[in-house]
Amino acid sequence: MPYGFSFDLSEISKSFFRELARVAQERKLHKKIGVRARNLAEKFRLQEITGLDVPNALQLVEDLVDVHMQNISERERFVKTKKRALFLPHCARKHMDSRCQAEFNSELPSYKCAHCSSDCLINQATTLGESKGYDVYTLPGGSCIPEILKKNRYEGVVGVSCSQELKLGGEYLKQISLAAQAVPLLKNGCAKTTFNIENLEKIL
Ligand code: SF4
Ligand code: SF4
After folding, report:
1. Are 74 and 181 in contact (CB under 8 A)?
2. Nearest CA to ligand 2 atom 2
3. Which ligand 1 atom minimizes the distance to the CA of 102?
4. What are φ and ψ of residue 83, in 5° steps?
5. Domains identified in the chain, total number
6. Which residue segment(s) compose the domain that 108 sits in?
7. pLDDT digits 0-9 by tens, 80-112
8. Which atom of ligand 1 is least distant from the CA of 116?
9. pTM recorded for the entire structure
10. Closest by alpha carbon to 85, among 199, 177, 204?
């Protein structure tokens, strides 16, 4: 399910993400996230840079902290896994029309990147994931995940998507007890979205 608002964090300073991670670490100790989220949003001028209003900026920061916290608490279990899948969002493809040469597999509802454009994030992430031994799926939506996991037994999963979808997907993976890690999108909007490929590499 997409957010009811658009965001673009690609112009936000890197130290914002470092602080997010620190807040997520601290939140394990105490739960005053509302105040911390407001401080972060103000310190990094989130509203000014992204144009988000206060409630949406705070929701975004809180969701990002939740994703980090989830990564921290699952990391130890995840690093022990061997057979892994990488789920990428179809909205980060360079083209979302017939210029994208990816093949859609209706059995395992997902696209397989055909590497038609070197500057496509999905191309780069697919190559990276496969080089590290992951089965890579580009998904039209999070609802495809149960179908894929029914047909393939994975021990660990890495997902890239907007933080709201990550939270929903994370709840499902927790129910089936699969170790997971997540990379949130820097820009949402369901088309021409972006994520940080270096962040993905670290997580993988
Ligand atoms: S590189 Fe892959 S995902 Fe990107 S547009 Fe081409 S086929 Fe589609
Ligand atoms: S931004 Fe991408 S990952 Fe998020 S809901 Fe839209 S299509 Fe799905």
Report:
1. yes
2. 190
3. 7
4. -85, 115
5. 1
6. 14-203
7. 999 999 999 999 999 999 999 999 999 999 999
8. 6
9. 0.91
10. 204
